[in-house]
Amino acid sequence: MANLTKEELFQAKIDAEIKIEPKDWMPEAYRKTLIRQISQHAHSEIIGMLPEGNWISRAPSLRRKVALLAKVQDEAGHGLYLYSAAETLGVDRADLMNDLVTGKAKYSSIFNYPTLTWADMGAIGWLVDGAAIMNQVPLCRCSYGPYARAMVRVCKEESFHQRQGYEIMMTLSNGTPEQKAMAQDALNRWWWPSIMMFGPSDADSSHSAQSMAWKIKRFSNDELRQRFVDATVSQAEYLGLTLPDKDLKWNEERGSYDFGAIDWDEFWNVVKGNGPCNRQRIKARQKAEENGKWVKEAAMAYAEKRRKRQQKIKTQEAAKAA
Amino acid sequence: MQSALFDYTLRLGDTSLIIGHRLSEWCGHGPVLEQDIALINIALDLVGQAKSFLEYAGEVEGKERDADTLAYRRLEREFRNVLLSEQPNEDFAFTIVRQFLFDAFQYPFYQRLTQSKDAQIAAIAEKSLKEVTYHLRFSSEWMIRLGDGTAESKAKMQTALNELWMFTGELFEMNETDEMLIKEGIAVDLNEIKPLWEQRVSSILEEATLTQPTTTWMQSGGKKGIHTEYLGYILAEMQYLPRAYPDAKW
Q: Which fold has domain B2-244?
């Protein structure tokens, strides 16, 4: 090993599935890629609280209200672990938050769609959390230790959320005709954005190849998307709902479902800020930051006063003792 | 007796439900991520307590109304929550002051309620007391931190305190329901809670360098179903789905 350069040693560790830890040497590009990815992921959790938070005050039963509150709280918790994981790479949460509210940082575009009915709580849990799990399970083996470990916890909770969402869909599908129609409508609106969550097609994905070599990414966007579609078709059938894709059909040869063309125009437009709720999501975060400013300042001022008071007591005690 | 017990459990359930609902409005909008999580925690506890009390209220009433029916199918005038619980969040200062004034009541109240001769009420109180102990610690710490923080935070806290003070008197109001149930050893005599509340409030306000309001006129009505204008909007939002689809199960 003595003759290896730092870069080679780094890659050798990755190839041997040895985790990279915060104090290990790493290429600057690896650090930057991870900061970008982890902070985007953290932002997605925080922004993701908003579309579901939109229904907490209107949840139709006490059990649903508690479950939804707990779910959104989990998302806040995921945001916290992920910001902490990003901080191990030498960035500051306050700066990351600033990037989010100034529109510099990106987050998952799915949260720029509106939640219009209660059934959206079911569809989001089932599809959006389902797609997130498909993306995130491989991240539990990501080469960067703190990210991988954060993801183990996140994935456990996400799979619970997915079951919870599916259960809402099930209740609606077996409910009154209006409820079933509500479930179908939610599926119609969330299906395409959900399969867009895997990101652009492999041919158009700018960061993929390097991320694969660094084992930040284990599978390509298209592979994961296909897995998600294959897993979801029978779940929709079981609900008695129809996926809104007339081209969807089983391909015997591939052993997978073929599906229709994705509207990438819509995808890129939402990424660029033209989605139905982009402005409103960022505004909500800006408002929370602005309204939180005096609270943070007061907490710091109080901590400082307390420190001074305690110091004074100590000095007085020392003087007495002398 | 049964109707007094129904009224009493409704009061406890409704109060927890409405203040829990108010806190849940913060979800995703809190001043700091950690505080967002803490407020949701408290909201979760309170809605949980509401569920237990309303479930029991339904049993006591014996008309096959469960907790959801009671929460989602009653009108403004039938709600028995105290007025303090329905006051809007306004800002973090209002929310903390509202919560503290409430927790400082809940803590000694639940301590006594664990001794209730009604086993079900005593059991709910026992579980709730553990939660409320944490709520009180959280809200007390923030009273002090924000009261004794910056000039801005102190002013906001003092304003909130001045505006919410008139809703504290109702916490200790008693009516026929209380009288009847105190005799049975089921309800808590609120005259005994009042000095404990006053002691706690004045000691925390002192540490927080806030001034206790001197206004003595107190609002009243929640326990009789006469509310502020806010409750109607809370219920309109909360009850909309079960009312729009009366036959649906969720």
A: Ferritin (1.20.1260)
